[in-house]
Design goal:
six-stranded mixed β-sheet, 208 residues, elongated, 3 helices, 13 strands, mainly beta
């Protein structure tokens, strides 16, 4: 398949992040390699696909101006492999962001591989204030990261340049809670796929 790539560096790029054709007539493509992502060209444009132990993602990247001679991509979206997250965890997140305001707070929604359930894990905080929070992104081996959440205290929710640097890698849903001291907090969400940022539904929709 990659014989036309004569430079080993190009071959490595293709092996790590392949671009595939969506079959028009044959069998469906196999699942992506766990933890990696790939691009798929379908009849209407380019999509990104990725899967790990807790997330299964297929999202549009670029719309084609013409109909391409490939198959249709099918359903798109972000799927939680282990089902929706209990609402009690969302309630705990909202309570903690309120209690910490005007300072920032951070928490990670994880899948406990041993107990087979979701949990809220509060990482080791290096420093925090009303304008920043720094924390260690190292998880115990028994956890898979599902969501990386933090608050913005009393200011609106948005992804800052610091957040962009922090999210430069990994595969998870990222969320920010803002205006935490008000009765109407604000929320921002995106999904991080190995350093690429894509639009995502409000992270609250992943709770039941």
């Amino acid at each position: 398949m990659i014989n036309y790539l004569t430079d080993r560096r190009d071959q490595i790029v293709f092996e790590e992040t392949p671009t595939l054709m969506q079959p028009l007539h044959g069998e469906a493509l196999p699942k992506p390699e766990t933890g990696k992502h790939r691009f798929v060209i379908a009849s209407d444009g380019v999509y990104v696909e990725a899967v790990n132990q807790v997330l299964d993602v297929r999202l549009p990247v670029a719309k084609s101006g013409i109909k391409l001679p490939y198959g249709q991509i099918g359903a798109v979206g972000i799927c939680l492999v282990n089902g929706k997250i209990p609402k009690q965890i969302l309630q705990a997140v909202c309570e903690k962001t309120f209690l910490f305001a005007p300072k920032e707070w951070a928490g990670l929604v994880v899948w406990d591989k041993i107990r087979k359930e979701y949990a809220l894990y509060e990482p080791e905080v290096i420093s925090f204030s009303a304008g920043h929070i720094s924390y260690r992104n190292v998880l115990p081996d028994k956890y898979n990261l599902v969501m990386d959440l933090h608050s913005h205290g009393t200011v609106p929710a948005f992804f800052s340049k610091t957040d962009d640097k922090s999210d430069n890698g990994g595969f998870y849903i990222a969320g920010v809670v803002g205006n935490c001291d008000s009765g109407e907090p604000t929320f921002a969400t995106r999904i991080v796929v190995n350093g690429h940022f894509f639009e995502s539904p409000d992270f609250r929709k992943f709770f039941n």
